[in-house]
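note to self: dont lose this again. the chain is below, predicted strucutre after it. 489 aa total, dont forget to put it in the shared folder this time
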Amino acid sequence: MKTLRSLRFPLAIGLSAFVLAASSRAATPPPNVLFIATDDMNNALGCYGHPRVRTPHLDRLAQRGVRFDRAYAQFPLCSPSRTSIMTGRRPDVTEVYDLQKHFRTVLPDVVTLSQLFMNHGYHAARVGKIYHYGNPGPIGTDGLDDPASWTERINPKGRDKTEEHLIVNHTPKRGLGSSLSFLRAEGADEEQTDGIVATETIRLLETHRARPFFIAAGFYRPHCPYIAPKKYFDLYPIDQVTIPTGPWDYLAHVPPPALASTQPHPWFGVTELQAREALQAYWATITFVDAQVGRLLDALDRLKLADRTVVVFWSDHGYHTGEHGLWKKQSVFENSARVPLIIAAPDTKARAVACGRTVELLDLYPTLADLCGLPAPDGLDGRSLRPLLEDPAASWDKPAFTQVWRGTFPGHSIRTERHRYIEWDNGRKGAQLYDYTLDPEEKHNLIEDPAAAGIVSDLRARLRAHWAAEYRPEPKQAPERLTPGATKP
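---
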């Protein structure tokens, strides 16, 4: 009897500890998500080592988590990229290659990223641009937004929209959505559309801080027209703004489709001074967006939400600002395919570190599901980045795949940590190979270098196996036909 009592006592203590631990876990709210998107932003940020562009608030966010140095879009155009992110599927699955088609026409029952959170009790809200809409077209319609993805949607509109008649356009034959144009805006940050995005996002954080939330803040800049209050232009005196000026003789060794996204060449035919003015404006809008991100980070701290909110900062694709004589996107050169990506997750180990592994934007869906303990749906094409948030140097063997279209044929790219291999029209219209350790500016196409034959053979096989094994080499429906040199907004 005595022995039985002595056994009961530690058993009771153990059972009580288990119950208390379970109760504590049940009482702990799941992590929130603040999903911050920018439009057409490349890696010209302070935390990525840019010597001129000032981004103190994104630098602060990078100190809270992991900065991914080799993160890539699946398709460097707004709607295809954003659709891929939100569905977790590659463009050849969504069949979205342009700015017109909606993914629900192909995947009517797909559970999107925010919809997954909504289905598990989160308040899922969108402010501004997450799917493609309203830039630079009218804000007030939802464009290619997906109502099933959100509990609440807010379409802000600031004075930048009503003052578009004041914009300076150095490329008047191009629409504002694909122009080199800018405006030194009057007034305060809060009057601009992106300022309103920040204000409305903060209101949502305040309103829903007591329950789990997935709040997406979609900023419209630095997408052209490059509009920001004058004070941000003043940070970048024009005599300190320089752009690549050639010589461009090395481009004779790349296939013509590689350069088809910008005609006339270089810089859409503007003068060097006009190109520098456009770059000055682009930098100004980056710093303007950074200031709005700072307002969001301040709100998280003030509301004591930072320790239980996963913050993700991303751009839908990169952006050329004169490299190879190009502007904007829709190329598979590094500046177009590469994106800034910062993740600060309170329950992971890594802080203030960079990750050099090759990752993709479609990895965000499984990552956020993993971090928040939600069951990811079958069929996702990405991989959770949690191992890299715990240890940025962890083993990782996943390359990045990026594609574009040139009228009726594709350009396919595979990016490893050191190399990028590209082929056009499945190799029929040429190929490229770059070694970024030796050639970070992509001036030496190694495709015909005998010393690189083994690398070409390996990457070609991996690229073709990727598209042949899981995806069609041609889409069911041909993408929108772009005339050579045309760039959609």
